[in-house]
Specification:
Elements (H helix, E strand, L loop, with lengths): L7 E7 L5 H12 L4 E4 L7 E8 L6 H5 L3 E9 L1 E3 L8 E4 L7 H9 L3 E5 L8 E2 L2 E2 H6 L9 E14 L2 E8 L5 H11 L4 E11 L2 E2 L4 E2 H6 L2 H7 L3 H7 L3
Parallel strand pairs: 1-14, 3-12
Antiparallel strand pairs: 1-3, 2-3, 4-11, 4-12, 5-6, 7-10, 8-9, 10-11, 12-13
Length: 239
Amino acid sequence: MELNGPSGVLLVDKAPDMTSHDVVAIARRALNTQKIGHCGTLDPMATGLLMLVIGRATKIQDLLMSEDKEYVGTMTLGAVTSTQDRQGKVLESMPVPALSAAEIHQAFDAFTGEFGQIPPMVSAIKKDGVPLYKLARKGEVIEREPRQVRVTDYQVTRIELPEIDFIVHCSKGFYVRTYAHDIGGKLGCGGHLSTLRRTRSGKFTLERAVTVADLKTTPREALLKAMVSLAEISLMRGA
């Protein structure tokens, strides 16, 4: 065993239908280490880049979480859901008009730059020490303060109504399902997030990520070699 155990960042391509916490548990066993955490929770529905901080890297967790992110997603218009994504209950259904590409871009443009975003009820933000999602499970809805977020860039890559594929570059603390919900509202027919994949966080991409399947089967030494070292992170950040 290394002196004080391994340290670094392991990039994982999270599989669908599992929590970020599940990935941490698998990595803890695979690396045989207790000191491990993750940066930026991905919902069970979402896939893509999950950064695991191991050993001394846990000290720079907040720093790594503060970086901008890139997501690839699909929104489905015509239905508003309780969770703002496809896993929630449909609260309202509306017909989807024959929207033009120009109208769709106009709605996306309204959520570009700096703006206030109201966090969803199904989020880990705490009210009096209790996560909102726990209150939501009891059917409670409380008033949430808008949070300042930023979208630096977006692309609409496919329009096949009721579906719209998009790429968004955004700040930390940004809820992509709220983005889909709000754009659906702007278009007047409602909408929710139906797929989501995180493709970048700061300078980290999926290029060096290991899959969850690999995480379960790859020998520990190979996983340690796959980690991004603290020295490399320092160079990447220009420190």
